[in-house]
Amino acid sequence: MAATDDVDRFLERYDVALREFYRGNPRLVHVLWSHGEDVTLAPPFGPPTHRWDEVAASMARGSSQFSDGEIVGVDVIQKFSTPEFAYVVRIERAKAKVAGSEEVAPMALRVTMIFRREGDTWKVVHRHADAVVTRQPAQSIVDPTRA
Fold first, then answer.
1. CA–CA separation, 12 vs 50, rounded Å?
2. Domain coordinates of the chain in residue numbers?
3. Rounded distance, CA 130 to CA 143, Å?
4. Whole-structure pTM value
5. Cα separation, 29 vs 15, whole angstroms
6. CA of 53: how far to CAs of 48, 61, 88, 116, 121, in Å?
7. Which of 76, 98, 72 is CA-nearest to residue 88?
8. How many CA atoms lie within 13 A of 18 on its CB side?
9. What's the distance, CA 136 to chain centroid?
């Protein structure tokens, strides 16, 4: 079986787990991650973390901000795989109640994930997600608090 087919199936499993994440449950996502010291996570509303214990804690904090969520679409920008490593760049579209809101709101995240083969399955070793899904002015990166 081709590595690409394996990655596609893994991403399908990840999207099912992500639906649960947006319902406040990070456990299914945890299962799909490597639990090594070299994993990294750059979430959309927190600083980057590394090592499994920090990454898992960051995911728990992030997931706790959501309820009643679901994935509504995924746009794959690029995907590449070898027998040992793979990556995907995509836009994830979801809707959920965010930060205790009573209203379900649409969300879109630009996501890059890197996977490696561990035994006979793929595991996430890096994920970066942010809300930049449209062109932004150059000034958007200026931090006025550090001027």
1. 25
2. 3-133
3. 17
4. 0.91
5. 9
6. 13, 12, 24, 19, 21
7. 76
8. 20
9. 21
The secondary structure element, H or E, covering residue 62 is helix 52-63
Q: Which two tokens stand for residue 68?
A: 């009643």
Distance separating alpha carbons of residues 54 and 56, to the nearest angstrom: 6
**Residue owning tokens 């994440």:** 21
**Whether 94 contacts 70, CB under 8 Å:** yes
Statement: 3-133 belongs to CATH 2.170.190.11? no
User: What's phi and psi for 122, nearest 5 deg?
Assistant: -90, 150
**Which residue's entry shows tokens 């596609």?**
8
Per-residue pLDDT tens over the stretch 91-109: 999 999 999 899 999 999 9
Per-residue DSSP letter, 33? B
Segment 52-89, tens digit of pLDDT: 999 999 999 999 999 999 999 999 999 999 999 999 99
